[in-house]
Every structure is written in structure tokens, then in C-alpha cells.
Specification:
2 copies of one chain form a homodimer. Chain A folds into 3 domains: 44 residues, lambda repressor-like DNA-binding domains (434 Repressor (Amino-terminal Domain)), CATH 1.10.260; 133 residues, 3-Layer(aba) Sandwich (Rossmann fold), CATH 3.40.50.2300; 130 residues, Response regulator (Rossmann fold). Chain A contains 13 helices and 12 strands. Chain A has a 6-stranded parallel sheet with strand order 2-1-3-4-5-11, with helices on both faces. In chain A, strands 7-6-8-9-10-12 form a 6-stranded mixed sheet, with helices on both faces. Chain A is elongated and about 90 Å long. By secondary structure, chain A is an alpha/beta fold. In chain A, α1 crosses α2, α2 packs across α3 and α6 runs parallel beside α7. β2 of chain A pairs antiparallel with β2 of chain B, so a sheet runs across the interface. Chain A binds a DNA duplex through α2 and α4.
Chain lengths: 342, 342
Amino acid sequence: MGRITIRDVAQAAGVSLGSASRALNGGKHVSARIARDVTAAAEQLGYEPDFLARSLRTRSSGMIGCLVSDVANPLYASIVQAAEARLRDAGYLLVVANTANEPARERAAAAEFRGRRLDGVLVAPGSDANDETWRGLVAGGAAVVILDRDVPDADGDDWPAVLVDHRGGAQAATRYLIGLGHRRIALLTPGTRMRPGRERIAGFQAAFAEAGLDPIGAIVSAQETSMDFAHGDALALLGAADRPTALIALGTRILAGALRAARDLNLSLPRDLSVLSVGDTDLAAVHAPAITALRWSLEDVGRAAAELLLQRLRGGDAGAAARALLPVDLVLRESCAAPAKS
Amino acid sequence: MGRITIRDVAQAAGVSLGSASRALNGGKHVSARIARDVTAAAEQLGYEPDFLARSLRTRSSGMIGCLVSDVANPLYASIVQAAEARLRDAGYLLVVANTANEPARERAAAAEFRGRRLDGVLVAPGSDANDETWRGLVAGGAAVVILDRDVPDADGDDWPAVLVDHRGGAQAATRYLIGLGHRRIALLTPGTRMRPGRERIAGFQAAFAEAGLDPIGAIVSAQETSMDFAHGDALALLGAADRPTALIALGTRILAGALRAARDLNLSLPRDLSVLSVGDTDLAAVHAPAITALRWSLEDVGRAAAELLLQRLRGGDAGAAARALLPVDLVLRESCAAPAKS
DNA sequence: AGAAAAATTGGAAACGTTTCCAAAAATGAA
DNA sequence: TTCATTTTTGGAAACGTTTCCAATTTTTCT
């Protein structure tokens, strides 16, 4: 004997197929007696509904996709974790796909998601240029929420998105360093074109501008990816005669490279060099001295994204594009101080 | 007009529904002419098959589940990442679910997976005791591969599993420290009951035994989770008169606590204390001095698990349980040295 | 060339649900 | 009590595929 279907349940309860379905779905239009009999029969037979059949009929798979460059990146891992928790509570399954920031893989994944009729997609695009892909996803009936990117909107409609206030954070961090007396500050960041990097640079420069300082002191050292930052780059930067007195480094990898370079050059923190981490990683918290850092809640990003998506799924496609802007905090620790008098 | 179905394609190509399906599935029993016409029509109409309908008919969803305590744990994140890559190549989608190591959530997720007809599941059980859950998954027709756990086998059949040689690794690490002259070595590890922890303790003690040393020197400090290790524990351990001269610490969190404690007590590494990390984290690599560590490839775990699963999916359920045992390497760095003469 | 075998084809059933529709039953009003 | 209205019910259609079966065509062999 095969699997228990709703047909078996209906038969056992002595009612029609349709009634059994209605009873099980808790819907209206069912008498108390039938509801009781059917649930009892289902219980007794150990009936488990088949989601695939249901999905086919209802044209909704009950699944949400998550499209990021790399789930192993702690940044995205935490977002995925939080989003999964929220979506699971709402009865959705989360499927993940890595894009390695390649538009071709983004397109392929989007096509697959469409074919599988995913109800919604959380996506952190790897480039600004790929927006027809997401548009296609929406055309296929999926709700799309963008994770911390600015996706251009062709027809004037904003994409629902969860954004982090990197600009405000970077500005606050830079302001803090300027307040300590630093005049030559370097910002080491990957990705100058896309949102997080671009916003950070903007905030960094805005802090210089608001202090009325010479922008010459605002040294932006940018690379495509954090992989591209070599240990040697940091050495060169810190070894120069007019080296910066403070450093803002993004992420574990760049921060680690910078710290190693400082060590190689016998620069003691925070006396000879102030260091500030963008992103509060294990390394920043545990390093001696502990690194002052910009922190924002990845869990909040995941949660907010899930919430936005659910809201969109429930409310139909009506309603204007909702966006959330999450705050960035400056966590003061031991790695920043006034620069040595020269 | 709605979505393009295979019916439309058949009509456009002037063939029957069945022939169109056969042509598109590249199967036999199709003439060259029809194959050509149908693919052309499909191309021209932009036909995209509906996976849900196909799944319903073929009784296979083309999806693999991944059941771990927490995707945000870098350990699992990397595994998920690698597994996803391999499975995606094979045409499968990966869905993730976090269990927080709670049996109830494991059961719930397994039930959902069964209802959704997932073809296979990668699972890192949170306890040994929950094996009927996985048995139920298999009964539901899913292939199951265990990630680095020993799941008891009731009826003598081994579970397919990808295992990491934690015992060998711990033994090699301990042997190395003993070789340097250490006689009092502490192992700080969470989870004494389950596989990784249990195996590590076994390897640790085996190294003492093979050296013919008094097991008194083998100090096992275990807690339920790495959260439970307080900074104070490490302080107490290292502050005692007969403190260990070497420390093996598992994971970023415990390692960080131990390092902080060492710093608080003004113990300089490696002169006053040798430290060895189980797991090669960012922190271990970047710390000054760099921490000698046990390393194994998480990517290999993910890849091997995916491979095992695919093999099982393709080959039907025939074939004995396959298991992979992955090696652990000792990465020598600067944090270990001979103990100071006392 | 004719028969037997093999390959191809169209039509229909099946997968397990939900939902529509019309018929039946129950309820309410007159 | 009778008719109008609402609620419940059973039967069937639909979702979009794949696959079975029988009928037809093509190929192969004698």
C-alpha cells in the first residue's frame, strides 16, 4: 500500500473528497460533524498532505529563494539564518543559491526559481546592471526584496529593500576619528561601485567636508574585492612617510591584513595608529587591543527582509514599495586614540 | 494570456502532447523531425517547464534539504556552500533549515521535508537519540547522509556519512605537544557526548596513553556548548598553581576566551603557554603570535556529502552504506613551544 | 513483395490536491 | 406550512506534467 492520500481519509470518514479537503483546510462551509470525523480519520491514518500536489493546484510553492554571492560569507550567513527562522514560522521553506556575483549565475538561478514557482526571493545583486533579471522574477509572479543594494528602477517604482545605513555609520566613524585629532585617515574598502562601498565612501568624505577639512587627508583605498587587498598594499600604505594616522578597514580579511602590516612595521595600537573596523567580527572583538568597530545587526537585516517579503506575499502586490533603513552603531573599544604629536 | 505550457508547444509544433514531452525530455522514441520542430517551437515561445507539475508526476522534487543547528555557524556555512555548488550542478535545489539542536525542531523539519517530498537530506543531528526521525525520512523515500555524527544503527545498517577524523587530529596535536615536552595539557571542548567532541577526547587521551604518560596530565574541560565556557573558567584554569603548560581550544569562541585569559594573567605566548586551536579560524591565523591549529576542509565535507547523496540518488537505494573519512592536518605556526623549565 | 519486428505516434490516464458548480439540505421568514 | 435564502455537500474539473497503451508507421528480414 502506498502513501495515504486525502482520498483515503475521505473514504475512511465516509465523506466526499471535496468535503475532506475543506475540513482539513479548516475552511468554512463544513459542518462540525464532518470536520470532526475527517480530522479524526486523518489523525488515525497518519495523513500527511502532499505539498507538491497542493502547490500545483494553488500555484504557490510555499518556498522563498535567497540569492547571495556566497552563503559562507558570515555577512550573508547570519542574514540567511535570521530570515529562515522568520519564514519557517510562516510556513515557508528557504532555498539558497550562491551566485559568486556572476550575472550569468544570477540569471540561471532566477530562471530556475521561476520554473520552480518560488513565491518570493531575497536577493543581494552582485551588480547594478542586472535588474531585468529581477524584473523577470517579478513578472513570473514572485515577490522580490533587495538586500542592501541600490537597484536602479527603470519605471520609477522602487524595489522593496532592506538597507543598512552605511553612509551614516561611516560618517560617524570618521567624525569620531577627526574629533580625536586625526587629519590623515585611510578608508580601505572593497567595491566602490555598489551600494555598501559607495555609501561608505560617501559618508567618509561627508565627515571631512562637514569638518571643513582638506579632502587630501581622506585616503580612499578601494579594490574590487577584499581578496584583492594584499598584505603588501597595507604595508606600502603604512610604510610611507606621510602615512595615515588612522585606518578604517572593512571586514575580517582586510582588517587582518592591516593589523599584520602594522605589526610588521612595529606600529603599536593605538599609540602609533588608530584602527577602526567596519563590521564587528570575532577578530575585532578579540584582538588585543580590542578594535573599535561599526556594528549593525545582520539578524535584523534578515528579519526585516523576511518581514517585508511576507507582508508583500500576504497583501498581494498592492501597496507602495516598502524599504527599511537599519542603523549602524559605533562600538568604542581600545584601538583608537589621539594621534601622536609630530 | 497565461503561462506557456507544454500543450502550447505541442500545438505550435503540430504534434501531440506526449510527443512534445518526449522530445523535450530528449528521450528515445522521437523522430528527428519532431524533435527539431518541438525544440524550435519551445524556443520560440519561450517555454519554461513547470517543475511542480513535473515533480508531482515523477514523485521527485529535485530538492535536497540541509538540516543543521545553525547555518550562520561558519562550520556549517562552508559546508552548505560547497554542497550547494555541487548539488546545483546536478540540477538540485538546496533548502536549509536550522534546528538549534532541538529534537522537536528536527522532527518538525523532517516532517515538512517528507511532506514536500525532498529527494534527499544532509543532516547533522543535534543528538544521538533522534534516529527514528531520520529513519522516518528514509521510509518516506529520501536519501539521507549524516554530517560528522555517529548515529546509532538499530538494525545493523550503517548510515551513509561524511566523517572528519577528529580523533586522529586530536591525537596528532597532543602528540606534538607532548613531543615538545608538555606534560600538563588541557583540552577545552564543547560537547562530550556527540561525535566531534567525543572523538577529540578519545584522540587526546590516546596520545597520552601511547606516550606512556600519567593521564592526570590530560585535563579535559568540557561543557555542553561553547557558549557555556566563560572567560572566568579559563582564568581559573590558567591561574591555578599547577596550571597546564599547553592548551587545546576548540573554535573561535573558546579560543578567544582562553587568549584573553592568558593576556589577563600576563602569560606570554608561546613562552609561558602553548596554545593550539582546533579549527583554523580567522582569529587563529591572524593572532599575534599566529596560533598553531588543526585544520580540515569544510568544503571537502560539503562536497563529499553532496557526492555521496547524489550517488545514492542515482544508484537507487542499492549498494552498501558509503562513508567518507576526511583527514585533519596540523598547521604549525608560532603559538607552541617547549614549556619553560620549572 | 509480404510478413514480422521495431520504432514512432496520439490519446488518455495518472500524480494528489483545491475549487468550482449545481444539487441537496438546513434554516429563516411570511 | 410554504417558499425563499443560506449553508453544506458530492461530483467533477483543473493545475501541467510524464508515462502507459494501443494504433500506426517505418524498417528489416525472408
